[in-house]
Structure formats: structure tokens, C-alpha cells
Amino acid sequence: MVDEVLRLSAQRGYTVFHRNRENSNVLSDIVVVHPASIAMIRMWPYVLIMDTTYNIPLLECVGMTPTGKNFTVATTFMYNEQAMTYRCVLQQIKHLYFTSAMLND
Q1: Which end of the chain, N or C, is more open, meaning fewer C-beta atoms within 10 Å of its C-beta?
Q2: Tell me, what DSSP letter sits at residue 22?
Q3: What tens digit of pLDDT does each residue of 45-66 get?
């Protein structure tokens, strides 16, 4: 099933990053990005909202236009919510969108 998701995502122009658990073929994390999201976050990189308020480790990243409209930047399914997992996922999002350093608290 995961292979089919990856194939269909690539076929439809989505950018997908996935990572397997160490020494395994078991999927650990997957980041899915729509092609239009890359253009939008490069135009308006000033606000990036990250939310994980779901019952599963789902990280939703949302940007905001100057007129206050939200747009999805990336959707990420994670194996767990440990610091290393967030670090890997955020590094991938940074790599996709930004040429300068991403600021965080």
C-alpha cells in the first residue's frame, strides 16, 4: 500500500520524503508536499504554523498569505513524536522550501 501511495504521489507531481526505521524496511516518517505549496511558501515564508493536535503523530504545517489566508505547506505522518523525528522531518521541510535558515524557538 505504501508503494502505491508513493507511486501515485510522484505521478501527480507531489514531492514525497520518506524514511525507514533503522535496519528495517518499515516506514518511519512520510512528508507529502503539493507542488503549489512550494511556490506559495517561497512567496510568503514569514509565518509557518505547525500543529500536532491529533490522536496520531500527524504534523500539519500551514503557511499564511499577507491577507490572512492559510495554505497547507506539508503533511507529515510520523512514527513517533520524539525530538529526533521532528528534527529529521523539519530538516526535510527546510530543505524543500527555504534557502536560508529556518527560525524556531
Answers
A1: C
A2: T
A3: 888 888 886 677 888 999 999 9
3-state secondary structure 43-67: HCCCCEEEECCCCCCEEEEEEECCC
Pairing of strands 48-51, 70-78: unpaired
Q: Model's pTM, two decimal places?
A: 0.72
Q: Which amino acid type is present at position 2?
A: V
Contacts 24+ apart (CB under 8 A), 87-92: 88/19, 88/29, 89/29, 89/31, 89/59, 92/17, 92/31
Q: Side chain identity at 17, as an amino acid letter?
A: F
Q: How many whole angstroms separate alpha carbon 9 and alpha carbon 2?
A: 11
What does the block give as the cell for 82?
520524539
